[in-house]
Amino acid sequence: MKIYKRIIRIVLFLLLVTLVYGIWYAWRAFPIISGYGAKNMASAVFLQHRNPEDVLKEELNFFPVSKGSFTVNREDSSVTGSVWGFAKRKAIYRTGVGCTLVNDYSEAEIRAQHFNLPAVPSQNRDTIAWPYGDKISDSLPSNIDNKALQQAIDSAMQMPSKKGGPAYTRAFLVVYDGKIVGERYAPGFNKNTVQIGWSMTKSLTSAVIGVLVKAGKLNPDAPAPVPEWQHTNKEKIKLKDLLHQSSGLDYIEDYNGPSEATNMLFKRGNMAAFVAKLPLKDQPGSVFYYSSGNANVLSRIIRHTVGDSVYAGFPYKALFHKINMYSLVLEPDASGTYVGSSYSYASARDFARFGLLYYNNGLWNGEQLLPVNWVKETTQPAPSNKQQRYGYQFWLNGQDDKDPAKRWFPDAPADMYFADGYGGQNIFIIPSKKLIIVRLGVRTVDENKYLREVIASVKN
């Protein structure tokens, strides 16, 4: 009888521990699930004008996000997410700046924010030649094997995800020697559809930093101008350390559960302030660690450098509209700072224009928009990155994980560098092959395969 009672007590104790852990985990995780789904549903519905059922099926069908419920309210342009009725989170849409999660600030405060954005020129872009417009030449360079190129594009569009199942590739575009030579879209998407860049946004943020470096307002070798870091052990963090993902901050980039990354993106209204307050873990510049937090600190540095009165329009006026990237939407957090790590939307052609800016060493239509050495510095491996895979918020074709003698993408040249986002959003820039390749979708595919096939379609 005593043994029986002891077993009962142990079982009850274990049940209690399990219940407490479940409540603790739900308290931390449910708001992230609700926030992730609400934000992505809102942007898909109000920016991309998509059907909510399609978004649930394609973007929000994975565990644990699939356990959430997401309600679209077209009257106030919002989406509310919850998990079994708990942890409600709301994302609101505002014209010109996309969608923002309501966190730390009231909805009224967020809706009252004013964004002074430049107007997009009213012109028929289909009558203006690429890249300044959308008129594409029917003729192809003589060294392009069009049949092989079209087969490569077909293969890329139909390629399954690395984990199996559909990859939902929505756009695939190839630029050779500055000209669009191949382009394909999934049903329901076209050259005007804006699509999420996810972490390709980091590369956009880096480019805006470059504009300020050219203007003499920022210096990569100087301490990062972050107010919270003055007179602390973090004041030695250089702007270059943030660009190189080597800040040394105690930050975890993990999307499988609660972490600094998920807390920042889905539970904080001022993302950069949240990251800036994190303790220092490593000596600045000494350890490479990929962090969306670093990119959001960079984004707020841009805001502080140019001032609130011009900040909202600055990235567009100073750079993106100058390269005819008119579809771009940068989405802010609740504090009004653009989420420089993750939230940009643009058409495939506009992402290709951004790649072309770098391919042309920062020169566009006769104007040097980036410092003349910016692309060269961008493509130099961070000293802390032993695999030589990362520069200034761009990835490089560095070493293979298992064999340092081989490249990460073995069938692509060593000079290839690229903007990369969750789910296989990519802008590959290959100077030696005169190629820019853009792929946009939901799931990651075998990038090396489609790179190999596209490269093979160009006759040397």
TrEMBL record:
SUPFAM superfamilies: beta-lactamase/transpeptidase-like. Residues 171-445 form the Beta-lactamase-related domain. The keyword Transmembrane helix applies. The keyword Cytoplasm does not apply. Keywords: Membrane, Transmembrane, Transmembrane helix. InterPro entries: Beta-lactam-related (IPR001466), Beta-lactam/transpept-like (IPR012338), Diverse_Enzym_Activities (IPR050789). The chain crosses the membrane at residues 7-27. It comes from the Bacteria. Pfam families: Beta-lactamase. This is Beta-lactamase-related domain-containing protein. It comes from Niastella koreensis.
